[in-house]
Amino acid sequence: MARIAFILLCHKDPDAIVRQAKGLTAAGDYVSIHFDARAKPEHFQKIRSALKDDPNVTFARKRLKCGWGEWSLVEATLLAVEAAVDAFPRATHFYMLSGDCMAIKSAEYAHAFLDSADLDYVESFDFFESDWIKTGMKEDRLIYRHWFNERTQKRLFYWSYHLQQRLGLTRAVPADIQVQIGSQWWCLRRRTIEWILDFTRTRRDVMRFFRTTWIPDETFFQTLVRHLVPEPEIRTRTLTFLMFTEYGMPVVFYNDHYDLLLGQDYLFARKISPEAKLLRERLGKLYASKDAVFRISGEGRSLFAFLSNRGRIGRRFAPRFWETESSIGRERELMIVVCKKWHVAKRLLERIRQVLNVPAIDYLFNEESTPLPDLGGIQSTLAKRTRHRRALMRMLFDYYDTDRLIVCIDPANIDLLNDFCSDRAKTRVWKSNASFPMIT
């Protein structure tokens, strides 16, 4: 039967790490911990003290200061893997986790899943041919050397990068490997892990190469698994459920996501919010449960995409107050002055304000400085005014408590004119190519 050694990389919240480790080992599995050396020493001591009597927990022999995008993350992973291989000879699989990950299936389910097929699970797509990287550096991650942290040493990072570009200091990828890329959250068999550790000791050239690549945790294990393991024994997927927003940020899960998470075809999920205490408590108990039944829907990503694209729908996604209707109003009259010479139209509207009791507004879709009342932010930019044009008009009618309103629009705004003329409101267009006669 499968027994999993979890490779746990973490840097905060010692109490949560202790609970996570105890929950995983309670089901008979193992945990190897690397706790970031940047964290407070007393936090690490708290973890060691709480777990020192658990034979199913071990620690990396050395703690490193880890940084995003650095080789240190891969090196810390290797240290935790080496500790797990030595401490847990009965472990059949090694599963990469972070402190933000939690099980969304029981250990019983996870073991049966891994026993069902003799496979490695790792995202590994061709680095150069795939579109896994959506924005930013691609080839330059590999062909230039990166010694500095892009987030904490930004000036040095880009100085070094641009200097190498100017001097043409590129390098070749090791000839016998095909670089792969994918998620860092993998699950590998013991045999594969042992092959990788042997490879790291014998292929110093490849190790030197990856030490100065950028974001190597997305390429190192992914490449080595493809290099060492026959393709039929690899599933190009992760067993950890994670999603990203359209801004490239991880989607965070909260208390009300419990049922959604259990319905995904994955064993773990990230990121679980630290504030989602009820969710963490329920998932913590789940891993050690017996005879749990899981109905797999796999709808997490499609549901998230649906809600993201549709916007505010339903109780949690209520419509904005200006989106409740799509018409200005059948009983209202909108008068539009169309004139290319703005100063002429403005003089006309000024005279209208003096003589008639009708609100008149200058080029509100052309000049951001046009005086407008505070309408909740919809009036703040030209883009918002144009995008919510009918709603803006409706709110202006309401603000001035009138059924007649005059506005100026440049004749170039033909889409606006067509839209207003197609509305159910009475729309009148006054146009002129010369000066307007003064109204008295």
Strand content: 5-15%
Shape: elongated
CA-atom Rg in angstroms: 31 Å
Helical fraction: 25-40%
Overall SS class: alpha/beta
Query: Oligomeric status of the shown chains?
Result: single chain
First and last CA, distance: 95 Å
CATH C-level class of the largest domain: Alpha Beta
Number of helices in the DSSP assignment = 16
Average pLDDT over all residues: 89
Number of domains: 2
Largest sheet: 5 strands, mixed
Return the CATH topology of the largest domain. Spore Coat Polysaccharide Biosynthesis Protein SpsA, Chain A
Low-confidence stretches: 312-317, 434-440
Q: Architecture of the largest domain in CATH?
A: Alpha-Beta Complex
Total number of strands:
16
Question: How does this model look, in words?
Answer:
- The radius of gyration is 31 Å and the shape is elongated.
- The chain folds into 2 domains: 4-138 and 172-310, Alpha-Beta Complex (Spore Coat Polysaccharide Biosynthesis Protein SpsA, Chain A); 333-432, Rossmann fold.
- Helix 1 packs parallel to helix 2 (41-51), helix 3 packs across helix 7 and helix 7 packs across helix 9 (220-228).
- The model is unreliable at 312-317 and 434-440 (pLDDT under 50).
- A 5-stranded mixed beta sheet has the order 3-2-1-4-9, with helices on both faces. It has a 4-stranded parallel beta sheet with strand order 14-15-13-16, sandwiched between helices.
- With 440 residues, the chain is an alpha/beta fold.
- The chain has helices spanning 14-25, 41-51, 71-87, 107-115, 140-143, 154-167, 190-202, 204-211, 220-228, 258-262, 277-286, 300-310, 342-355, 382-387, 389-400, 414-421, and strands spanning 4-10, 30-35, 57-59, 93-98, 102-103, 120-121, 125-126, 180-181, 187-189, 234-235, 240-241, 268-269, 333-339, 360-361, 404-409, 426-432.
